Amino acid sequence: MKFRNKLKYRIIVAFLALSALLGALFAVTALTIREHLSTNLIGESIKSNLDEYMEKFSKDPKGTQGEPIASNISATLTTPEKLPLSLPVSYGDLPDGIHDLVEGGKQLKVAVNKRHIIEGQEVWGFVIFDVSTPENESKLVYSALAGVFLLFSIIAYFLAIYASKKILKPLRSLSSMVIHQGNKPKHLAVNFADDEVGQLAQALDDYSDRLANIVNRDKEFNADVSHELRTPLAVIASTTELILGQPDISNKIKLRLARIERAVKQSTELTETLLLLAREEQKSDKDLQRTQVGNLITSIMENFSATIKLKKLNVEVIEDDWLQVKAPAAVVSVALSNLIGNAIKYTPTGTIKIILKSDRVLVIDQGTGVSEEELPKLFDRHYRGDSVTVKGSGLGLAIVKRLCELYNWSVSIHKNNNTGLTAELVFIN
To answer: CB–CB of 423/362 below 8 Å?
Structure first.
């Protein structure tokens, strides 16, 4: 599983992203509120100081002369005709109220009062407050916000780890229970609360029950059919044997009865193999016999002798090494019969080579073959190639694959250089 796809790390990343977003929103909100409150408080403060001073001055001009308006602000009282040089000319056009101005790189808050007339003379009051934030103060604020952001991220990281463990604990338990179910699965939902994980466990239980029912029906069907076939096959075999024992039978009838006998033997082997697959007997069974493959191939070729003569095929059996397999002869016969039978069936003319090596059998044909895209699908049940015109059910190679899985063998099919296919069955004893 890729790192970024793990649910644990998705939760951690989600917590960190949420922490980063909340931290950024907190910083922006804090700075905005700080700026808004500071400017409003300063403006209201200097306006209140100026109004109080002007009120005193209007009642007692001489008594308030020299009295500072406020200790931390610059204030000026003047008349429209005698605007002092210390004030910019533009201040004369400012209306009564509070104004935000920028002069010389400084941010100023200016309060203006033009509402009083003293001794017939209009009097103006100006209060100027420098609201520029000191550089050190700004650095301190931003540093504090950065520290808070980092702290939030660290807290979010550890919270994410803790939350992920809590959230994933039931999922890990469910996964562990599924992995260690064994051959007889038990219901999982009883071990979990009625939440999302419990619903998932219930869905797995339902799926397991349906799958078990399908497998059981398949096994029962294979076992029942294979068992019921034994009796008619035994009757045919015994009847054929009795007829062959009569002295007045012609050679032509004997040949036909021999073909029936071989067909019965082949059907019996297939029946035994299907029963084996239904029971899923393992290759490690100590009672497994050893089968000599060379002799078995000779018997298999006799079963296909009529087809080989009819199609005028040349079949070469090349025994490069002596091969013996630890498995029932019926099983090995079914696997090789399907591979050899396919080679004969799909080769219209030419030569078929069957090569025996120390641990494998190669079946090389000169048939029409299949495309590269079709090769991986050949072992699927009921699959037949697009160009196949010969009748069939598409089950032979699927049975071979199941036998290989049961006995830990391997089977593969690949294209030849010129034409046809090569089927390779590797035995592992």
So the answer is: yes
Q: Are residues 110 and 220 in the same domain?
A: no
Cβ atoms within 10 Å of 208's Cβ, excluding its own: 16
* Number of Cβ within a 10 Å radius of residue 103: 12
Query: What is d(CA 226, CA 229) in angstroms, rounded to the nearest whole number?
Result: 5
Q: Is residue 167 part of a domain?
A: no
Long-range contacts of 386-393 (CB under 8 A, 24+ apart): 388/346, 390/345, 390/346, 392/345
For the chain, what is the radius of gyration of the CA atoms?
Answer: 49
Residues 39 and 140 in one domain: yes
- With a cut of 70, say whether residue 295 has pLDDT above it: yes
Q: Is the pLDDT of residue 341 over 80?
A: yes
Cβ atoms within 10 Å of 145's Cβ, excluding its own: 17
Token pair, residue 37, equals 């409150």
| Spatial distance between the Cα atoms of 83 and 402, rounded to a whole number of angstroms | 107
What pLDDT, on the 0 to 100 scale, is given for residue 284? Answer: 46
| For the chain, counts of helices (H) and of strands (E) | 9, 11
The span from the CA of 112 to the CA of 75, in Å, is: 10
Q: How many CB atoms lie within 10 A of CB 87?
A: 17
Domain match, 390 and 327 both: yes
Sheet architecture: strand order including 410-415? 314-319, 351-356, 360-364, 421-426, 410-415
Residues with Cβ within 8 Å of 67's Cβ and at least 6 positions away in sequence, in order, are 53, 56
Model-level pTM?
0.49
Q: Which two tokens stand for residue 314?
A: 């040349």
The CATH number covering residue 92 comes to 3.30.450
**Alpha-carbon gap, residue 183 to 203, rounded angstroms:** 19
CA distances from 424 to 302, 319, 365, 372, 376 (A): 21, 15, 12, 17, 14
Query: What is the extent of the structural domain holding 253?
Result: 181-280
Distance between CA atoms of residues 425 and 400, nearest Å: 9
Which is it for the CA torsion 165, 171, 174, 180, positive or negative? Answer: negative
- Considering the domain architecture, whether residues 147 and 7 belong to the same structural domain is answered as yes
Give the residue with greater pLDDT, 377 vs 62: 377
Over the stretch 175-184, which tens digit does the pLDDT of each residue have?
777 777 766 6
Whether residue 33 has pLDDT greater than 50: yes
C-alpha span between 262 and 167 (Å, rounded): 64
pLDDT surpassing 80 at residue 322: yes
Residue 191 confidence (pLDDT) above 60: yes
**121 phi, psi to nearest 5 deg:** -115, 130
